[in-house]
Design goal:
globular, alpha/beta
């Protein structure tokens, strides 16, 4: 029960304002560790500056230690990267998919919420989201909020047979789409937390989730969960605030105690990966490698996996960028 309450950020003895102040200090330290612009202190505190100088040495040692890791990926990301490498092996002419190894990993509850708003503000508005601090907590309003996958669920070819009610995406196009989803470019990666200053932090945010799949039945069945890695561009970190409020925060994905493979009694053996990538809507069907309509099969025509004009957007008619699964 204690672990569950901690994953949901529940502590009856905690002072909310003190906790928020500590989270802000923690965020600044994490930004420095990632070589990203941190937030300038509005009030200079000599003791705080001395503390920061001491911490800088610790961060330098931490970075040096990271150099000894070959990929910099956590165990869950290693499993995802391995799957992608195997699945798209042999697909040529497309850049390899590389999972980012330097994300702002959200390893405790509440950090995502503070990151989703300016350091000294209660409102953040972008092309994709509007976030407001309210008495009950926060309010996140996405610019587009689709509540169903009906008609837009896409599956990459190369695996099991694809049901007729789903869209079949050519394997080369699927690889291109996923590789672009992990490409860190554009203002969509600006963190709302640093939006009030000239130098803004640009990064991916990520979180580890462990939703329960099979509940504990004493004497019969152990509680089992799957693991999910969720990646979002910095400006959409509010989405991670949303999901951790539902499923809880599973902690740092780098800590051995959170490695699902080392806790096989409570792991279903399933690893999932979710990537938010609104920047894909700017790609064209020709760019991702879909064929011209004159060369398309009947199913490709039906599913919209072809183009007639070279400028045809991915958002036009059954776009494979709307909802995709490999």
């Amino acid at each position: 029960m204690e672990t569950l309450l901690k994953s949901l950020g529940i502590d009856k003895n905690e002072n909310p304002q003190i906790k928020i102040d500590l989270i802000h200090k923690y965020i600044n330290l994490r930004l420095m560790a990632l070589n990203l612009p941190s937030v300038e202190e509005t009030e200079k505190d000599e003791r705080n500056e001395e503390f920061i100088e001491i911490i800088k040495g610790l961060i330098a040692n931490y970075k040096k230690r990271e150099e000894f890791f070959p990929t910099g990926l956590c165990p869950a990301d290693e499993r995802i990267q391995g799957f992608l490498n195997n699945y798209f092996e042999g697909v040529e002419g497309v850049d390899d998919i590389i999972i980012p190894n330097n994300t702002f990993s959200l390893d405790s509850y509440g950090v995502a919420r503070e990151l989703s708003l300016p350091n000294q503000g209660d409102k953040y508005v972008s092309d994709y989201i509007s976030s407001y601090r309210v008495k009950q907590g926060v309010l996140h309003n996405p610019a587009k909020d689709r509540r169903t996958t009906k008609g837009v669920f896409h599956i990459s070819e190369g695996g099991l047979p694809i049901p007729a009610d789903k869209k079949a995406v050519p394997k080369n196009a699927a690889k291109y789409i996923i590789s672009k989803a992990f490409e860190e470019t554009g203002d969509v990666f600006n963190l709302p937390y640093t939006s009030g200053q000239e130098k803004q932090a640009k990064t991916f945010a990520s979180i580890l989730l462990r939703p329960t799949v099979s509940p504990l039945i004493k004497g019969i069945n152990e509680r089992k969960s799957m693991e999910i890695r969720f990646f979002a561009p910095g400006s959409l970190v509010s989405s991670l605030d949303f999901v951790e409020s539902i499923f809880g925060n599973a902690g740092s994905p780098y800590h051995p105690e959170n490695d699902a493979a080392l806790d096989y009694l409570h792991w279903t053996g399933h690893t999932g990966c979710i990537v938010l990538a609104p920047q894909l809507t700017k790609l064209t069907k020709k760019e991702v490698g879909l064929v011209h309509i004159s060369e398309a099969t009947e199913r490709q025509k039906r599913d919209g996996m072809c183009w007639e004009k070279s400028s045809e957007s991915m958002m036009s008619r059954s776009s494979p960028s709307e909802n995709f699964r490999a």
